[in-house]
Amino acid sequence: MPPIASHSRRAVSDTRTPEYAGPVLLIDDDPDFLDSLTLLLESRGFRVLTAGHGAHGLQMVRAHSPAVVIIMMPEEDRIEVMLQMRRERQGVKIIAILGGGKVDKSDYLVIAEKLGADAAFERQDTDAFIEMLEEMLKR
After folding, report:
1. Are 41 and 48 in contact (CB under 8 A)?
2. Which of 17, 57, 115, 136 is the most buried (most CB within 10 A)?
3. E strand segments, 35-90
4. What's the rounded Cα separation, in Å, for the pair 83 and 6?
């Protein structure tokens, strides 16, 4: 029997997207933004679940235990969903995405953090948001 040749194959890591542990759940009532963010995150190697409103998002958290939840709904709904998630799943990481609204950005960042969001970004802060998401999934 011939000897088994031992050699290692190096994976080309810079041509593949990274794999992240656990899915990311996106919750938003704007289907166009939800679709575009889903495509962007999937192209970067994230597994993505989606929900079109807060109640469905809470059901998805219960059923799938996502690693990170990204909430992008009107302020009142977003606050209630964050509070309920914290009551049910204290360890879940939450990112709030701001999309206009009546609350000043700096005020909302303080409110979101006090209510349990781990981070808050404006919709156009895509690079910073994805960088934070990657960090959260490494922890």
Report:
1. yes
2. 57
3. 48-51, 68-71
4. 55
Contacts of 102 (CB under 8 A, 6+ apart): 75
Please give the structure tokens belonging to residue 79. Answer: 């606050």
Domain regions of the chain by residue span: 21-118
Instruction: Return the amino acid letter for 120.
Output: A
Q: Structure tokens of 35?
A: 């679709």
Write down the CATH number for the domain with range 21-118: 3.40.50.2300
Element (H, E) at 125: none
List Cα–Cα distances, 36 to 10, 71, 93, in angstroms.
34, 15, 22
The three-class DSSP label of residue 50 is strand
Do residues 115 and 92 make contact, with C-beta atoms less than 8 angstroms apart? no
